[in-house]
Here is the input.
Amino acid sequence: MKDEQKKREKRRRRRVRNQLLAYMTLMVLAVTALVALYFGANGVIRYIKNYNDKVNEVIAEAESDAAAELASAALQEQSEPESSSAVYEEKEYSSELSDDPLGELVDTLLQEMTVEEMVAGMFLVTPESLTGVQTVVQAGEGTKNAIVQKPVGGLVYSAKNFQSGEQFQKMLANTKGFCEYPLFFAVTAECGADADFGIADTKKASEITGTDQASEAYGVIAETLASYGVNMNFAPVSEIVPDDGDSSLQGRTFGSDAASVAPLVSASVQAMQAQGVSAVLQKFPGSGTEQKTLEELKNSEFLIYEAAIRDGVDCIMVSNISSKGMTDSDTPDSLSGAMITEVLRGDLGFDGVVITDALDDTAVTKKYTPAEAAVAAIEAGADVLYRPSDYEAAYEGVIQAIAEGTISKERIYESLVRIYRVKYQNTVL
Here is the structure.
């Protein structure tokens, strides 16, 4: 009987989640007119069509769950008539509208997840790391088995995974179908003529001089990515670099003056996120900032991040550099509580998703094992652990840290709330 009650409770939670998502539908449809400001009538039509398809899926699932629940309740009533009060309480609970339907949706989902599933949901890895295949260009039984055995929160793809738009879209759709919980499907697609993933040529960042141009460029990028099923882009570059600065960033940044760059970054972010593609600013606090003090950064680079945070950027990637000028430590910023919790969350007020820089970078691996790096990142306040050098070792290290009390379950839950608010806010399932 207890097992049956647990099953009924899980069905109830699933039904509540679907009802909340359907309620959110009304809210999202109410603001689709805003999309027209960016993409015109055709863009809105496509947006609504895609959205309605998703809503129909939700309604179908909700109806199925409701039917199953009614059948279960009828059988229960035959054997235990007094159980009718519990059914009434369920109906009363589910009929109440929350002031924060997105929060209710996320909470309902997380209540269904085990600690192990939540920990796995903090990792963002390559499909090659997940499957062991040298270059992944399709998703079949191998991907399905790997995702079941090693569930992760997201996958990040590169140009080598892309052969055509049709192939890429099918691969992501198949992968999505294998997953019990929503994934981040991430790429790096910056503006410029050499963009990958079949994206039409745009002006490169250094050629963009106004917010309209920035919106147009990243609107083109987001439209293409969204058509494949991509819901996260490691862009735009939010750093400022002088002409004689980091050569790897030349042409990829919007300029060398923070006050001028800030509105361009914000416009890029808003253009992507309007189409359901979460922007990831890269990289905080910026190139060449290792020796700068907090006050110096507040009057330069931090102007960019403050503007983007104010305008609702979903995610920020924290660099593997060591900001000794602020922390007086050689700890990589991606593993530093001083940088993530005190500066980024505290001083700048960011409450979105914090993503580490690549944890397989030598700046990390020369000092930390995969497990040590993962634990340190979580302790520092990071939500997403990007590309550990050994996913399984990193995952097991976090599980062990929880068992030993080094990391609390509450701390994991905190990150998952942030992650799933972003995953669900644009109805990405």
In short: The CA atoms of residues 123 and 385 lie 5 Å apart.
